[in-house]
Amino acid sequence: MKKKELAHLEKRLLEERARVMKELGYYDEQFSGTLQASDGDLSSYSFHMADQGTDAMEREKQFLFASKEGRYLWHVNEALRRLYFTPEKFGICQECGADIGFERLDALPHARLCIKCKAREEDGKRA
C-alpha cells in the first residue's frame, strides 16, 4: 500500500477515534448525572411505577449504546496499532493474506479481513 493511502487511512482512523471518544464522553456525562438531573424533576423518586420502568429502560439503552461504541473504539485502536507497528501488513487480510483493497479500507478503515473472508466469518456465525 502506498504511503499516501496509509496516511489517508491513518487520518480516517484518528477521526473515527476522536468521534467515538466524544460520543463516549457524552455517555459518561449521562451516566454520571443523577436521576433528578436526567428527567428535570425536583425529586429523585418517580411518582409512578411506569416512570421508573421508563427511566430504567433509558439507562439500559444508553449503557448498550456506550458498550457498542466501546467495542468499536477497541477495533479502531487495534487498527491503529497494526498501522503503526506493522505498516507493511496493514491492508492485508489476516485470514488468507490477500489485499483488502483501498476502497474497503476507506469505507471501513479498521477492517482486518477481505470481503470473502468476512462473508465466510459471518456465514459461520449464522450457522
Question: How would you describe what is shown here?
Answer:
The protein has helices at 3-32, 35-39, 49-85, 102-107, 115-126. The protein is elongated, with a radius of gyration of 20 Å. The protein has one domain: Four Helix Bundle (Hemerythrin (Met), subunit A), CATH 1.20.120.910. By secondary structure, the chain is an all-alpha fold. Helix 1 (3-32) packs antiparallel against helix 3.
Structure characteristics:
single chain, 127 residues, mainly alpha, Four Helix Bundle (Hemerythrin (Met), subunit A), 5 helices, elongated
**What is the straight-line distance between the termini?**
35 Å
**Poorly predicted segments:** none
Secondary structure class reads: mainly alpha
Q: What Rg, in angstroms, do the CA atoms define?
A: 20 Å
Q: What's the helix count?
A: 5
Helix content: over 70%
Largest sheet: none
| Shape designation | elongated
| Overall number of domains | 1
SSE string: HHHHH
Provide mean pLDDT, rounded.
84
CATH class value: Mainly Alpha
- Within CATH, the superfamily carries the name DksA, coiled-coil domain
Report the CATH topology name. Four Helix Bundle (Hemerythrin (Met), subunit A)
The CATH architecture: Up-down Bundle
Give a count of the beta strands, DSSP E runs of length 2 or more: 0
Task: Tell me what portion of residues adopts beta-strand conformation.
Answer: under 5%
